Amino acid sequence: MSDILRLDHVSYAYPGGRPVLRDVSLAVTAGRSIGLVGQSGSGKSTILKLLLGLMRPQTGDVLFDGARLDLSDRQMMRTYRKSVQAVFQDPYASLDPRQKVQAIVSEPLRALGIGGDRRAMVVAALRSVGLDGDILDRYPAAFSGGQRQRIAIARAIVAGPRVVLADEAVSALDLTTKVRVVDLFRDLARKTTLLFVSHDLGVVASLCDEIVILEGGRIVETGPTRAVLAAPAHAYTQQLLASVPRLPDFLAGASSP
Ligand SMILES: Nc1ncnc2c1ncn2[C@@H]1O[C@H](COP(=O)(O)OP(=O)(O)OP(=O)(O)O)[C@@H](O)[C@H]1O
């Protein structure tokens, strides 16, 4: 198995601030779903911004297919954008209210110059997230939060990425909708590689093969999700686990959290 994305001994401080990531190394490996868990402020979104090439680390490297991610290398960034797509927390903010569904979902196809029957590709992406192809001419305002997040996922997968990065992608949804969208991410994790960032240990436990626990900008524990959660070695992981009372039943195979 190969690492598609990798952080190698990365430290990061926002301009004028103290370090918010310290010596972080993690790999997004083809075919594995990885959950990044930590409390608010632990540095999860900062890791995602570095993996998305939105900023550079002060020390360490961000690697894409084994090569250092170089924002000035147009060829590399084109391949990168085709390979890596993201879904963000707030579907109300991440979808342009002035654009119709067709324009929103086809945006990566246009940006990457992918030809062919774009309409058919958009319809196929919408169907794969459980939406009808007849919504192409509607605006985001016509949809619920869960439907909007499905539209955002359709946009992320329409160009056939190798990795989907999801940042708190179910946190803004009500419980019933959240369960359905988590099911959708589970399907997605079978077809592609997923990095799922969440403060919700229960969701990550039900979704991810591997788990990375982040505390105060440092990785305190990592490994196969079930193994880590069945026998957490670090006090912080134990504390996170204690906040999800039903998780031990789930890990024992009794029910979903
Ligand atoms: N643009 C910024 N400028 C300065 N400091 C920032 C900025 N963005 C985040 N931080 C700080 O960096 C640290 C890590 O923030 P980050 O958003 O990565 O955490 P997080 O784990 O994603 O939190 P949350 O779950 O609340 O989104 C926090 O102390 C935060 O205040």
From TrEMBL:
Example GO biological process: transmembrane transport
Chief place where the protein resides: membrane
Keyword terms: ATP-binding, Nucleotide-binding, Transport
UniProt entry tagged with the keyword Cell cycle: no
SMART domains according to UniProt: AAA
InterPro entries recorded: AAA+_ATPase, ABC_transp_ATP-bind, ABC_transporter-like_ATP-bd, ABC_transporter-like_CS, Oligopep_ABC_C, P-loop_NTPase
Topological type in the membrane: Peripheral membrane protein
Any one Gene Ontology molecular-function term assigned to this protein's record: ATP hydrolysis activity
Protein location: Cell inner membrane
PANTHER family: D,D-DIPEPTIDE TRANSPORT ATP-BINDING PROTEIN DDPF-RELATED, TRANSPORT ATP-BINDING PROTEIN
Family from the record: Belongs to the ABC transporter superfamily.
Protein's name in the database: Oligopeptide/dipeptide transporter, C-terminal region
The species this protein was found in: Kaistia soli DSM 19436
Classification lineage: Bacteria, Pseudomonadati, Pseudomonadota, Alphaproteobacteria, Hyphomicrobiales
